Amino acid sequence: MTDAVLPLALSQGDPSGIGPDIALQAFAHRAALDLPAFLYIGDPEVLKVRARQLDMSVSIAETDCEGATALFADALPVLPLPTGSDVLAGKPHVANARGTIAAIETAVQLTLSGKTRAVVTNPIAKSVLYEAGFGFPGHTEFLADLAARATGQPFVPVMMLAGPKLRAVPVTIHIPIKDVPGALTEDSIVETCRIVAADLTSRFGLAHPRLAVAGLNPHAGEGGAIGTEDEDLIRPALRRLRDAGIDAFGPLPADTMFHDEARTRYDVAICMYHDQALIPAKALGFDDSVNVTLGLPFIRTSPDHGTAFGLAGTGLAREQSLVAALKMADAMSRFSKDRT
Ligand SMILES: NC(=O)C1=CN([C@@H]2O[C@H](COP(=O)(O)OP(=O)(O)OC[C@H]3O[C@@H](n4cnc5c(N)ncnc54)[C@H](O)[C@@H]3O)[C@@H](O)[C@H]2O)C=CC1
Ligand SMILES: NCC(=O)COP(=O)(O)O
Hints:
It is found in: Cytoplasm. This protein is of the alpha/beta class.
């Protein structure tokens, strides 16, 4: 088997969320969308029940990695991982957490061992996994831990939301807003920007990426009058980055860096906290933005949205962001292969 025919590994996500729905819908339109082949890792029975709920006629075939690409024209290839619990669309349950986590672990193992090309994850509900004792804020940190355990090396994962109109990176991710100033350091800003610059070149082909760095405070601190972090942390970090040859500039007032003309001046916005990055990303492209994890030894993408429990089994969930995630993983994998 050559790399060109390896499938992407798609984890089921929370099986009571919209992951099964959007996987079925994307698969149903695979020819028109020119979708790369993917191997769904999860519970085939959940998919069959969901297809019936959605009134879709989809062939589902249990297989391993080797058989997936050839099957893709005729049936949705599934690496079976039974959930071992009753799964009801729109009704999350802690008993499903084990299957949710196992699917992510399997997708990573397969990709690190070269049997699949990239990891694409369907959404998980953080609160359900926390209730089950999951020790990570989300996929992003869990994936870095899995990579570290598999390779014996540490990895710093970086979240990037990427769409046709904006790429945006939060330096701090899933922490309470009151903890953001304390969690931000000059080193964390420098490290995040270095990873972003390196991966935009190695994974996306941008030779000299331009990084626009947001301030933390209103008006980027107004010269220190409205908060000191912009002058004390961000400005020194930017000096270090420019000394290292990285085109990073700021700190920019965050309220004026996302309008149409402002966005032409940079390739990625580096933001100080989750909502500073994800609000503009989702406002400018909820249906076509992708959540990418940078800094890992494998490719990982995901739709930008969550489990949308209220839509599971209704036929109202749109599959576009998952389609964008599959296509981005495919393009990144082909770009990496062409460079080697
Ligand atoms: N990558 C991941 O695993 C992510 C997981 N989440 C998790 O999802 C759960 C629900 O989070 P929410 O904040 O409610 O965000 P959400 O993205 O699930 O839903 C937000 C709104 O967008 C709608 N929506 C979401 N996806 C849609 C789609 N494909 N088509 C049409 N409408 C869609 C929902 O119905 C809702 O009105 C949380 O537990 C959160 O942790 C949230 C974001 C990403
Ligand atoms: N808000 C983004 C999100 O929740 C996705 O996080 P992750 O599971 O990809 O780490």
